[in-house]
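In this section we walk through a basic example: taking a raw amino acid sequence and producing a predicted 3D structure, encoded as discrete structure tokens. The instruction is simple. Fold the sequence below.
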Amino acid sequence: MERRELLKLIATATGTALFAGNVLAYTDVPAVPLSDTLFNEKDVALLNEMGEVIIPQTDTPGAKAANVGATMAVLVTDCYTPLLQKTFLDGIKKISSLSQSRFNKQFVQLTKQEREALFNDLDVEAKAANLANGVYQGVETGKPSQWEPGTDEPTPHYFTLLKQLTLYCFFTSQVGATKVLRYVAIPGRYDGAFPYKKGRQSLGNLNLRYRAAKHNTVIQRIKQGTDTMNKTLVASTVALLMPLSACATTDADTEKSESRLTREQQAAKTEVWEPVPEVVSFDKVGVPSDAISLIGDDLSNWTSVKEGDAKWTLQDGVLTVKPGTGDIKTNAEFCDVQLHVEWRAPQPEAGMEGQQRNNSGIFLQQRYEIQVLDSYQNKTYPNGQAASVYKQSIPLVNAMKAPGEWQTYDIIYKAPTFNGEALATKGYVTVIHNGVVVQNHTEIQGTTEWIGAPKYKAHGCAPLQLQDHGNLVSFKNMWVRPL
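The resulting token sequence is shown next.
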């Protein structure tokens, strides 16, 4: 492909000549550590996905196959001016934000049709913005207007930069050169770049500008015309594609160090823009929109552990133990969860002390009990008081309110995992009682037992269970978020 033809391809597709602050005369791009660029692995993956919309795979490979994102990372870092770097980086963030606001999805989750619709709109927007900003439209010199040292840079639309980089990186890649363009092999394997050895001059040292008189030999070779893409022609095309001085490769000019970057650019290297967390709203009583409410207008979410319908009392959103009817469990099964429970112990009757003082329990996966007990001025064994992991872990403090008042538990539960019948990882639980942390990522030692030591037995996801201990303990506003 002739130099002018590639320039025209890019200019026709984007409405303006190729933008870049310096000539891309790099040595071996794959050898450049990503940590020496403004991008991370997720950024490169996202750029590949965006590039694939511009050059999709058909009967020939697309942009992703050429890994254009990795080349873009080096080009933007080494060959873009700070203004162009900021324009490009802010633009990628803008595309991610548009994807979320327009489709309520991350860009990588968009369908082919959604991606194309978004990019078609951005293409129209970019061309209008470039025209309004006076960005040069010609292609004969391959040089935007007023792009000389000491003059103002034109600021192209960010989508123009993305589109140009995709085309450029693709058609100078091995995939683009050998799988898409007509390729005539020369002796030896394809090699798009030569490894650089310290002290050896490279194209970058030439401090090239596009000046025909200074590079007559190379220009004549391009002007003679060939559509053979090999390493010599790629190197020549690379050297002439962009209008300003080369990316320096001397020790003085190309130190790949943090000192080359502004503080804003250094900070941007560790920014991760996808995935974007989903927005959670709350109802009038504070239940998150992605939570499952377990206590509603009826007992349809619950079943008796003894089988059959749950027999507990439900009135005005308050679920109360009906002594003697047995434990109840959720119909749904859970593994890792965030669980919110509000519960209330009634005023104790005369003689109610210790474990008999309005007792119940919340069993995670029907096996691991967080104790529910009136522990307000009530002496009992501490590993059995309210908010204990029953018979395993004593609460850090006693955060009980007086009987008759509503208590709250917020529980973060990480379920144990198993490899066949063998334990792979133990379970952990955090309990916040009335706003106070009382179990802090506590290790669960096994099933909670009244008699005997805890032990693990393999299981999968399982229901939540509430205990009938014979007392009129009540529950309300109980919701769960699977994690």
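Looking at the output, two observations stand out. Residues 3-268 form one domain. The CA atoms of residues 216 and 441 lie 71 Å apart. In the next section we compare this with other chains.
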